[in-house]
Design goal:
Arc Repressor Mutant, subunit A, mainly alpha, 6 helices, 68% helix, 3-stranded antiparallel β-sheet
C-alpha cells in the first residue's frame, strides 16, 4: 500500500471511530444525557416540520418497525416524542416531537453544524468542490456496501 493510501486509510478509520465516540460523549454531557445517539438519530428522522408515520421514520432511520417501536416507546417515556393514530386511518400511527424533542433536535443539529463549520472554515472556496467530491465517493462506497450486505 502506498504512503498516501496508508495515510488516507488511517485517517478514515480514526475519523469514523472518533465521530461516533465524540458525538456520543457530547450528547451524554449535555442536558439531553438520557438520550442515546440512536435516539437522537430517530428524533432527527422525525424532524421538526411535523409528524411522520412509523414506516417513514423507520425508513429514514434505517431501522425496522420493531426496532423503531421499541425506541419510540423509550422516547415517549423520556418526553421527547408523542404518538397518535391517524384520524382518517386508525391503522396508521404518527409520531412527532414534543417541545423537549424539538430542543433535543436543535441541540443535535448544532453539534452537526459546528462539525461542518470547523471543516469549511479551514478551506479555501475552491477547495469545497474537492472535499464534496471526496465525501460523495465515501458515501457511495458505503451505500454500495450496505446494498451488498442486505442480500
Amino acid at each position: 500500500m502506498s504512503d498516501s493510501r496508508k495515510v488516507i486509510n488511517k485517517i478514515l478509520v480514526e475519523l469514523f471511530n472518533d465521530i461516533l465516540d465524540i458525538e456520543a460523549a457530547a450528547l451524554k454531557n449535555s442536558e439531553f444525557g438520557e438520550l442515546t445517539v440512536t435516539e437522537f438519530h430517530i428524533i432527527e428522522s422525525i424532524g421538526l416540520e411535523g409528524g411522520k408515520t412509523m414506516s417513514e421514520a423507520a425508513f429514514l432511520s434505517g431501522v425496522t418497525i420493531g426496532t423503531l417501536t421499541t425506541s419510540i416507546n423509550r422516547l415517549i417515556k423520556k418526553g421527547a416524542v408523542q404518538r397518535k393514530r391517524d384520524d382518517h386511518d386508525r391503522r396508521v400511527v404518527m409520531v412527532s416531537l414534543t417541545e423537549r424533542g424539538k430542543e433535543a433536535y436543535s441541540h443535535h443539529e448544532e453539534f452537526h453544524r459546528e462539525m461542518t463549520e470547523s471543516i469549511i472554515d479551514t478551506l479555501q472556496p475552491e477547495e469545497d468542490g474537492v472535499l464534496i467530491q471526496a465525501l460523495v465517493a465515501i458515501q457511495e462506497f458505503f451505500s454500495q456496501k450496505a446494498k451488498e450486505y442486505e442480500r
